[in-house]
## 1
Amino acid sequence: MAYEKIETRAAWKGSEIDYRTEMMHRFTDDEVAEIDGALKACGALDIPEITQETFALPTMAAKMAALRDELLDGRGVVLMRGFPRHRYSADEMARVYIGLGAHLGQPIAQSWQGQLLGSVIDISDVVEKVRGYNAGGGQHFHIDGSACDIVSLMCLRAAKSGGASRIVSVAGLYNYFVDERPDLLDVLTRGYYHRNHELDARYSLFPPQSEERIPVFAESDGRISCVIDTGCLRYAVHYGGVTLTPEEIAAYDELQRVAKTEEYYLDMNFEEGDIQFLNNRAIMHGRTDYEDHDDIARRRHMLRLWLHVPEWPRRPDNQIFMNLADCQHWAKRRTPFMDMPTQYLSTLAAQQEERRQAQTVMARQAPSQRYRSAADWQPEPAQAG
Ligand SMILES: [Fe+2]
């Protein structure tokens, strides 16, 4: 099949971009004052009640709309820097974050537990069987759930060292495959079977596994949209009876290999208070390895939002696996303690202390070090009996 390269601003190489000049918005004093006013006006509202109306930004709203356009048809990345983290509590920062996010889209639940505001923090030594965002170490490149249009992080606390956000342009990668490996592009546009995380699936309205392969790349209106969730691909092999062909293994590995070259990726260091917004169709993300503190209360801690943007064109239908109905269903299970960082951290710190006393602290997990190639995703052995 013949493919055409994407020649828009969405196609970039990390080695050619300085994010500080091309992707960053620095808050002005007036904007900080306006946000501070909105924070005071919204008081103690619960997360679903923080909206464009309750967190009104009379002047800055137009700027947020322009940034949303930049996410759709520009570089696909916006870093907002310079909000004075030291003046606000963690929960106030969370409210500021949701308020700004509400001007870009609607927060949606991020798992079966229904959290609208997720915590990305390593708690793998304290909580059994955590997901990737609650484990440590680096991350392979991926796209978050397909219901999410904009994926975002706010840095509450930076790592002891490392832990940069590593991002790559999907269109840039696509162009590499057009030029160098159109044979593997055939495989990637056909895609892979996906299988949901076990608990997400249990509380889903739909079967756990996709009936068809889901294209990694799909084109629509001159924009490339990407879906690749390494965990979901791996679960389909582990638990769903899927056997990858040698070409499918080669295509996945080549995608990760190229994305991990210095030419293509871009590392964005997080300062405390930074807010990063990514187009979750056009930008793959991962992170670099990092060194963390032992005390949970001092660990690298990012808040995460998944935003649905009704104003944007829909993702191509054949790329939708996790959908909005699932997220709305999960939202019914919401446990507010997970949302606000102070309560969440104090709960986890108490669990850590209990485990220390009982000497049951577990080894910390870094899952990306376990699976270096799709060839490592073997079916789990059938259970005896
Ligand atoms: Fe992610």
Note: The chain has eleven helices and 15 strands.
## 2
Amino acid sequence: MGSLTVFCYFLFSYIKVCICLRIVGISVPTLKQRGESSTLTCDYDLEGGRLYSVKWYRDNEEFYRYMPRLRPPQHAHKLDGVKVDLEKSTARRVHLRELTLKSRGLYRCEVSEEAPSFHSAQAEAFMEVYYFPRETPRITGHERAYQLKEPLDVNCSSAKSFPAPDLQWLIDGQKITDRSWLIAFGAKPAPQGLLVSTLGLRAPTRQRMKLKCVATIGTHRRERTVVIEINSSSWNKSFSLLIMITLNIVCVKIS
Ligand SMILES: *[C@@H]1O[C@H](CO)[C@@H](O)[C@H](O)[C@H]1NC(C)=O
Ligand SMILES: *[C@@H]1O[C@H](CO)[C@@H](O)[C@H](O)[C@H]1NC(C)=O
Ligand SMILES: *[C@@H]1O[C@H](CO)[C@@H](O)[C@H](O)[C@H]1NC(C)=O
């Protein structure tokens, strides 16, 4: 009998959780640039219950709480990379200023109701913080004089960024997908937690080639184009030099 009462009570409270409080949605920007600010929102429906607290966590560490019974109702905890702007934060949103690479993480909001229910609900979402300077990627190995039929040996390196940018090579507007032409050197660490991606290109040469390297992070892109011209002018030069020398010898002999 007693266990049935307990069971009914739990069933009842479980149903009440579903009716009384639910998170309608959490909205956390998925990709933000270092230095920007960001507004995170947590939408909930109390369905007649009374709000006890809204707490925000980054990677399980609390950084903001809103409790309507307290004066003031807001409180922010210091966390590396999390600067709360209290004036722009409310019971349903928290505004973060001057994001750093340390601001990235899993953000969770937790909403609780007052007594007697004390029901709570939570939702979470990840925010990535990137740094992508205006600098275009650097191409190396194209400066040397290539001979026709000598394979191209060039590299493209991104500027120091975070996360590691994706790189892509295009020859005369054609995206290179042939893996045997590409050498992925991976991402190398740089100061301040940044990364440099490098992608090599080993392709057959043509008389004139327009090489483009594109670096992307999400929808952001930086690109650089170089033109390689392979001509036989050097060979022509030595050829004409040879002719001149021969002519000179002939002239000397004649005179
Ligand atoms: C390309 O990068 C690799 C790895 O950093 C390096 O060993 C190689 O010399 C580079 N080649 C050119 C042409 O820059
Ligand atoms: C050959 O290369 C030289 C410089 O290396 C350039 O000035 C010249 O225009 C080129 N000739 C052709 C036909 O592309
Ligand atoms: C010398 O250069 C010209 C273009 O500048 C080219 O058309 C010609 O074929 C070259 N001559 C030789 C012998 O390679």
Note: Residues 241 and 247 are 10 Å apart (CA to CA).
